[in-house]
Design a protein that fits this description.
Layout (H helix, E strand, L loop, with lengths): L1 E4 L3 H6 L10 H9 L3 E7 L5 E12 L3 E11 L8 H15 L5 E2 L7 H9 L19
Length: about 140
């Protein structure tokens, strides 16, 4: 398995089977152009995308820079083989390189596969996490 940072729209679109919904070319281009956005893709031995992790640098005047692990996805055929842990560790290494003081992820407390993955990659449990969402018409 090889993990590489995606730098082209073609790479992002080739990983379409890993996303929750079909990617849009214009959104992929905007993601790559946005400062602080990173998407790492794990490639299987045959060269196909086996998983990805995306992260977003977040800056605040009194905290500095931290990395939010935005999404992690591993193809069903490659799960339980350490791909998720390797991707998470690769994003953490990228965060350190960028000078982030930490990395965090929001995860449902009943998502045992994700909790195991993050725990195995060294994440600490900081307690209950509640998330509230405002949904806007994307047009």
């Amino acid at each position: 398995m090889e993990i590489r940072r995606a730098t082209t729209v073609a790479e992002l679109l080739a990983a379409a089977h890993l996303y929750d919904a079909a990617p849009r070319e214009e959104w992929a281009a905007a993601f790559l152009a946005a400062p602080g956005h990173v998407l790492l893709i794990a490639y299987a031995a045959d060269g196909s995308p086996a998983g990805f992790v995306s992260g977003i640098e977040m800056r605040h005047p009194d905290k500095g820079v931290e990395m939010c692990l935005y999404e992690l996805s591993v193809d069903e055929a490659h799960r339980r083989r350490g791909v998720g842990r390797a991707l998470t560790e690769a994003l953490a290494a990228e965060a350190r390189t960028r000078g982030c003081y930490d990395m965090w992820v929001g995860v449902d407390t009943d998502n045992e596969p994700a909790l195991r993955t993050y725990r195995s990659a060294g994440a600490a449990d900081e307690g209950v996490f509640a998330m509230r969402v405002w949904t806007f018409d994307a047009g």
